[in-house]
Amino acid sequence: MSISIVRLLVHAKQQNKWIPKSVLTMHNISSWTIQHLEDEGYLLVYHCSDRGTLIKLTLKGYKHFSNQEPHFELQN
Fold first, then answer.
1. Sign (positive/negative) of CA torsion 25, 37, 55, 64?
2. Which end of the chain is more exposed for a tag (fewer CB within 10 A), N or C?
3. pTM of the entire structure?
4. pLDDT at 40
5. What value, to the nearest 5°, has the Cα angle with vertex 7 and ends 3 and 76?
6. CATH code of 16's domain
7. 12 domain residue, yes or no
8. How many CB atoms lie within 10 A of CB 41?
9. Is the dihedral of CA 75, 37, 71, 1 positive or negative?
10. Looking at residue 1, what DSSP letter applies?
11. b/e code 6-37 from CB counts within 10 Å (16+ = b)
12. pLDDT at residue number 69
């Protein structure tokens, strides 16, 4: 996962905002990766009938990603 996506997710968490799943998939984040991060407790995934699927970091995800070094890898 690119550092720009991590920064986007961290900033959204700080602002208490949700990010559309389409933004992540537009940046080549697969549905499998999103599901895996949700299963690990790093993401919340909310399915909204009028706005589509929305994503937000959990507190665990925020603590993990906001303290990451700029060069980390998430294996698929």
1. negative
2. C
3. 0.78
4. 95
5. 45
6. 1.10.10.10
7. yes
8. 12
9. positive
10. -
11. beebbebbeeeebbebeebeeeebeeebbeeb
12. 52
Q: Is 72 within a domain? A: no
Does residue 18 contact residue 9 with C-beta atoms inside 8 Å? Answer: no
Residue 74: what pLDDT? 52
Q: Judge whether 59 lies within some domain.
A: yes
SS3 56: strand
Say how many domains are in the chain: 1
- Residue 27: what pLDDT? 86
Range of the domain at 53: 3-66
Mean pLDDT by 10 residues, the chain (76 residues): 84 94 88 93 94 94 80 49
The position carrying tokens 């799943």 is: 21
The confidence score (pLDDT) of residue 66 equals 87
